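Researcher: I'd like a structural prediction for the single chain below. Treat it as a standalone chain; there are no partners to consider.
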Amino acid sequence: MMINISKAVQLLKENDNFIILSHQNPDGDTIGGAFALFFALKKLGKKVKYECENSIPKRFEFLTDGLTCDEFDEGFVVSVDVADEKLLGEYIKTKYNGKIRLAIDHHLSHREFASFTLVENKAAACEIVLNVIEELGVEIDRKIADCLYVGIATDTGCFRYTNTTDNTHFCAAKLIKLGADNGEINRLLFETKTKTYAALEKLALSSLEMHFDGKCALMCVTEKMFNESGSDETECDGISALPRQIEGVLVGVTVREKAENEYKISVRTNAPVDACEICAKLGGGGHVRASGCTVHGTLDEVKEIILCTVKESL
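Model: Treating it as a single chain, here is the predicted structure.
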């Protein structure tokens, strides 16, 4: 059932034990929104715990200070920034199948899986979580403000992407006024690279291919690259943005090896190409400028499949 913020707030006030879920391979928006809600509910005296298929990436660990999960068996399950139940990961999806009560999300491609669904077309889920927390009547301290700012900044590419709106800037300004350390957060997230990430980026760029008269740039990230660089999936967020940054490119594709004959595809586009349209044809989804999907086959087969799909959109 689709609901509004007032109904979501009512559900949060009526319950006491909460399990908050992020999607697998968590990014700043799902982490920031989940942690902000976590700390807000704790302020209301609720018991809360957090679960995710994967560990928190090192660059977001500064948000986990004071994050102590409570112990309880059954709770009101809330997902944040999860567009499709399968994005929770196989373990979490199976564990909470049919038990998710509330989904808070900003993807228009959202596929309903919760009892109650709050979806609004915002640049980041954290914009919605901010409104929820305000209506809950919780005072937003620096910790909550930092979490929400991280989500908004990361999902807008530090306010560079076309999904950024006047409301996005308004929310960010409000969070800065409430204590969000925007300067330090931006430095950590957008101006700092680990040595292992730098090594991975170098290897990934060596795989770069140009297609369709330079309108499509494709890059691969393999297990071999992870092993050689000492990096891992938690450091992959920035990789997906690289192909689209090349002059003349309308579609940037990153093919990331997940398992044998299984690849995660990240698509980033410039106008007028729709990334969500491309990924939807392959069973995925997301946003107009940033979307993803999973494709099975050998690396060469997967590249051929995604390139054929991209060609249709060019």
